[in-house]
Amino acid sequence: MSGVKLPQGFRWERLRQDHPRRQFSSGQSEVDDWLRAKAWQHQKKHLSVTKVLLDESERIAGYYTVATGQVDFSDLPVDATKRLPRRALPVAILAWLGVSADYQGQGLGRLLLAQSLRDCYEAGDTFAFVAVILDCLNDDVKRFYQKWDFEELPGHPYRLFLSHRQLEAMMKNPT
Ligand SMILES: CC(C)(COP(=O)(O)OP(=O)(O)OC[C@H]1O[C@@H](n2cnc3c(N)ncnc32)[C@H](O)[C@@H]1OP(=O)(O)O)[C@@H](O)C(=O)NCCC(=O)NCCS
Known about the structure:
The protein has 175 residues and is of the alpha+beta class. It has a single domain (11-172), classed as 3-Layer(aba) Sandwich (Aminopeptidase). The chain has four helices and seven strands. The chain has a seven-stranded mixed beta sheet with strand order 1-2-3-4-5-7-6, sandwiched between helices. The model has no long low-confidence stretch (mean pLDDT 95). Bound molecules: coenzyme A. Coenzyme A (COA) binds at residues 26-28, 31, 96-99, 104-110, 136-137, 140-141, 143-144, 147.
């Protein structure tokens, strides 16, 4: 998998049924329950794809799930919709992301987000989308995403978006 540089001993894999999903604990029950109970089922049905970051002991240090979706033209800020048609618009969805509690605060969340955005960007060569959208669970997590230029959707304080134009700039000029 092309992408961000990982610390030694870590590697990415597409989620498999035999990954130790049930041991994963980020401290956020919705994030843990998704990986434990739903991520594999949804991947099998081609509804979403989950990538796991494995440590040297084959434990899941973190994961993210991406999917495709649509938002209505009127849900996006005016600035983001200039010259776009007034209809449902395709988006990439960063549906879930979590770091194991043992590894939080060591930069893995940043790596997961960078890799998930790279996946979206590369997929955009084949399947067009106008923005990456995500729902955050609380204000802390919102601050985490806002470090990467994600902005609130008007009227939806916990739904954030990053336009394709911003994504492209980020991928071409990584900081
Ligand atoms: C939110 C989460 C993914 C962050 O991962 P992490 O590995 O701890 O974060 P990192 O160490 O990579 O930190 C990256 C930056 O974000 C900041 N950050 C990390 N967690 C943050 C939080 N909860 N609130 C605000 N800022 C945060 C860090 O200070 C750091 O900033 P810096 O680059 O200026 O130093 C992780 O804490 C987590 O999995 N939480 C539980 C699950 C969850 O809430 N998932 C998101 C909702 S789907």
